[in-house]
Amino acid sequence: MLDERRGLLAHELFSQVELHRVFGGVVPELASRDHVRRLLPLVRSALERAGTASADLNGVAYTAGPGLIGALLTGAALARSLAYAWGVPAIGVHHLEGHLLAPLLEPQPPPFPHVALLVSGGHTMLIEVQAVGRYELLGETRDDAAGEAFDKTAKLLGLPYPGGPELARLAATGAAGAFTFPRPMLDRSGLEFSFSGLKTAVLHALRGRQLTETLKADVARGVQEAIVETLTAKALRAMEQTGLDALVVSGGVSANRYLRTRLDEAVGRKGGRVYYPRIEFCTDNAAMIAVAGLARLAVGQHDGLAIEARAQWPLESLPPVAGSRQPSGSLE
Ligand code: KG4
Ligand code: ZN
User: Fold this and answer.
1) Apex CA 174: angle with CA 169 and CA 178, to 5°?
2) What is the distance in A from the centroid of ligand 1 to the CA of 5?
3) Which domain range does residue 120 map to?
4) Average pLDDT of span 234-239
């Protein structure tokens, strides 16, 4: 529940991590069926916590894509129906725009324009954010996303799903320099990433060895260092290339403490500043969807009456948000 003036009034989250853990990853059909069970009670509970009556609402924002279509459709159907019943507009939000705008919920929001490093389970992107709704892709991964690289190598180490946070925890106890894994594309110019080689390198490192706790921790540390160093170097390169000194980091991997420390140091040294969402709003959440929805509703953008969700949806195809701060020079 987000109020234009009073800010975030309530926030609810039901994590499906336990549901998917036994399978070692997300099972789409189970996710959708569980959404059907959980959504309405969550909406009720958020309304109660905020002390808001449905009659006071001005719109319902929901994630319209991109992603697993079954899960998206359960959310879209519920949000669209509630909005219809309450006589207010529904706003289908782009999942990644939600991540990008999550830091706007913080006491010191980032200035525009800025460079965004979006690192989640499905995406690794560097984006020039000129204003809300004006996103220019500077570079992205050619294969695995950063979160995926964390998760896949964690699986090789026998860690439970989702592996990212588990691997990060283990890395803290690993020895520095025990393993040095490749930093792909770091030596090449450009802002593209490639993380798929990392799991092969880990597989090689583990071959023929007994998986002791020490070995696991040392490998975890090596993996985290390879990913974080690559992300940091490319983010700095993007800031140099665009001449911007503000960096936003969001998406699940932005919860990684080591990444935050390294980025703060590196960007700070250049006189810039890094902005993050609070830890709980790094991974998927409804608050960030409300922020993006409100920004669009404020300028009159909302959906029609059809229930729509998109598995594929390029970020750059989003309409600009008229009235938001525009860049000084034209970039189009
Ligand atoms: O944004 P998100 O919640 O979902 C997607 O949109 O993909 O990101 C989830 C990803 C997972 O790959 C998860 O392992 C990773 O973020 N993640 C982390 C940490 N917390 C979550 N990776 C590294 N360190 C963490 N602390
Ligand atoms: Zn996400």
Assistant:
1) 145
2) 30
3) 111-276
4) 98
